Fold this sequence. Notes:
By secondary structure, the chain is α/β, with parallel strands linked by helices. The chain contains 9 helices and 10 strands. It has helices at 29-39, 62-65, 83-96, 118-130, 143-152, 173-182, 196-204, 214-217, 222-242; strands at 8-10, 13-15, 19-22, 43-47, 72-76, 102-105, 134-139, 156-159, 188-190, 209-212.
Amino acid sequence: MTDQTDTLTIAGRTFTSRLLVGTGKYKDMTETREAIDASGAEIVTIAVRRTNLGQNADEPNILEVLPPSEFTYLPNTAGCYDAKTAVRTCKLARELLDGHDLVKLEVLGDEKTLFPDVMQTMKAAEELIADGFKIMVYTNDDPIIARELEAMGCVAVMPLAAPIGSGLGVRNKLNIMTIVENAKVPVLVDAGVGTASDAAVAMELGCDGVLMNTAIAAAQKPVLMASAMKKAIQAGREAFLAGRMPAKRFASASSPVDGLFFD
């Protein structure tokens, strides 16, 4: 296990788990709770526009299944395609969650790719930060944009590994590495993870954490996949801290041949 002092700090809050999970796409609330428990996640993200936080009295309330006393909520602006809607959604979340100010901002560019609209994202981030929100921001894997979002005051930068829900894994390792190397705030891969090895790769690149939903919820056995993701995050983090051996083109014997005794 990783050292318990190797914690993740976001906006002054400290966490032992580096796996953040979503709450959508499960077959029911029971499976949602079981999978999140198996993941060991302390931060759960919720789509404010699609989830009942008490605004619909006749529907199941996610706050009862995942009590805020047990988890840190990360309301997100999924489904927003312009800055105005994203800002309004964050303000609704703050109202529903008694002044909660930590949010995940995502402003999408189109329905087919779900790539971020960077210009609208930056516009929304500027307004929300000025209003006292702590912004964890979903963005593309452009190191320059990541640097600008950090400079604006975002508390974490969350580049995509691949399109949302695609399960393609980390498609551009070099860009993710560059973002990590330049950042002074946490960098968390957000979107594109499909299986445990993808999560491990993200952590081996030096990312501070990974956020995922579909990779767990769409698995044939979500609870088991959640457990696998927990272990993958831990293994990837340990591998990063350990420092991997240099990659070599040719073999290098585990045992030296010099000094062997031959008959």
